[in-house]
Specification:
Layout lengths: L7 H12 L18 H9 L12 H17 L6 E5 L2 H16 L5 E5 L5 H9 L2 E5 L9 H7 L4 E7 L11 H11 L2 E5 L25 E4 L12 E5 L2 H5 L3 E2 L7 E2 L9 H38 L12 E4 L11 E2 L5 E4 L6 H14 L2
Parallel strand pairs: 2-3, 2-4, 4-5, 5-6
Antiparallel strand pairs: 1-7, 6-7, 8-9, 10-12, 11-12
Helix pairs in contact: 2-9, 3-9, 4-5, 9-10
Bound molecules: pyridoxal-5'-phosphate.
The site of pyridoxal-5'-phosphate has 14 residues, from helix 4.
Length: 365
């Protein structure tokens, strides 16, 4: 540390010079996060010093976390769902697998997970000492339910399905998977970290939620398509007993037990997440999601007119293509199979898509 502190002016001049080195969102086509909605920013600033890890000190903020869980539970057809705000999809997935392992009580537990799963499941399996069984995908890039059923045995504590895959934006056949899980009595976790704030607002989208009796838990990230500030994830659970299986005693806090992974937890971004939902309502979310999907389709059409074919027709706003040359300053990403991957988040509006297409057209002419 410095012996003597900096003046506020020099400090902020240094900090903001570093901020200038970050990529401007105007050119970010690779991220599943976005510029937060103004009401999320306002709520975040108002709740900056709140700590959900000690809810007895912040009962008002804690009630807003409960309201967020209730709103999302209702959106997913289980108003009484329980759950809590996590730091994002990684924590939600770790906690879901932890619950499943706890409930199954097997000596050498395994989990059955699609090849397309986010790498957070590798972390979860590593931390929790779970054998990870990887299910191949069908030709449409969705998890093969027949192969999944064959991989389940008496030591399987959890099966996972993805509603909106990170790389190709596909929804697994959650209905079929939920049926298999229900029939075999296996815990079924749906990772809807991305799709959970997209699919409910699209007409004719595949069903992935608690309306399917086999679904045990759902991960959804308001800090992705929910336009909250970071960090804001939510883990929703059908049955409160599952969540209680994670409880530990917390003798020095205002509550005597907690089931969360982190102790100290920000209220700011959690209230930010709720603020966006309350402000936009279903109607507002439908408009935003419709815009993102329209831009995704336009991007796919535009790229194909340049002879750059799509790799998949996605269920959510993630577009993938055969490799192409990308001029600076655009920031794109690449899938493990080598496809170009672009995410049409709310900051990637129609004008951004057109200017990206123009640059790609010139670069690949
Ligand atoms: N699950 C899915 C489907 C994701 O796309 C991601 C991140 O992109 C995660 C989980 C992990 O989320 P986080 O980075 O918020 O921990």
């Amino acid at each position: 540390m410095r012996e003597c502190g900096l003046s506020e002016e020099s400090l902020f001049s240094f900090l903001l010079s570093k901020r200038q080195e970050d990529v401007d969102h105007a050119h970010i086509m690779s991220s599943m996060c976005t510029v937060p909605h103004p009401v999320a920013v306002r709520a975040h600033l108002e709740f900056m010093e709140t700590n959900l890890g000690d809810p007895g000190l912040f009962p008002g903020t804690a009630s807003l976390e409960r309201l967020l869980v209730e709103r999302l539970g209702t959106l997913y057809h289980l108003p009484g769902a329980c759950g809590y705000a996590t730091s994002g999809g990684t924590e939600s997935n770790i906690q879901a697998l932890r619950m499943a392992r706890q409930l199954a009580g097997r000596e050498r537990p395994n989990v059955v997970i699609p090849e397309s799963a986010h790498f957070s499941f590798q972390k979860a399996c590593d931390i929790l000492c779970l054998e990870m069984r990887t299910v191949p995908l069908c030709s449409d890039l969705r998890m093969d339910p027949v192969a999944a059923a064959e991989m389940i045995d008496r030591n399987t504590c959890c099966m996972v399905g993805i509603a909106g895959t990170t790389e190709y934006g596909m929804a697994d056949p959650i209905r079929d998977l939920a049926k298999i899980a229900g029939d075999l009595g296996v815990y079924f976790h749906v990772d809807a970290a991305f799709g959970g704030m997209v699919l409910p607002f699209l007409d004719g989208a595949p069903v992935f939620d608690f309306s399917l009796p086999g679904v045990s838990s759902i991960a959804v990230d308001p800090h992705k398509m929910g336009m909250s500030t970071i960090p804001a994830g939510v883990l929703l659970v059908r049955d409160s007993e599952s969540l209680c299986s994670l409880s530990v005693d917390t003798p020095y806090l205002t509550v005597k037990q907690e089931f969360t992974l982190s102790g100290t937890r920000p209220g700011a971004s959690v209230v930010g997440a709720l603020a966006v939902l309350e402000y936009l309502g279903v109607e507002g979310m439908r408009d935003i999601v419709a815009g993102c999907m329209k831009n995704t389709r336009r991007l796919i059409d535009g790229m194909e007119t340049y002879g750059i074919p799509r790799a998949a027709t996605p269920d959510v706003n993630v577009a993938t293509f055969a490799p192409a040359r990308i001029p600076p300053p655009w920031k794109v990403s690449w899938t493990r199979k080598g496809h170009l991957r672009l995410v049409c988040m709310p900051h990637v509006h129609a004008g951004v898509v057109e200017s990206f297409l123009k640059d790609i057209g010139e670069e690949n002419a």
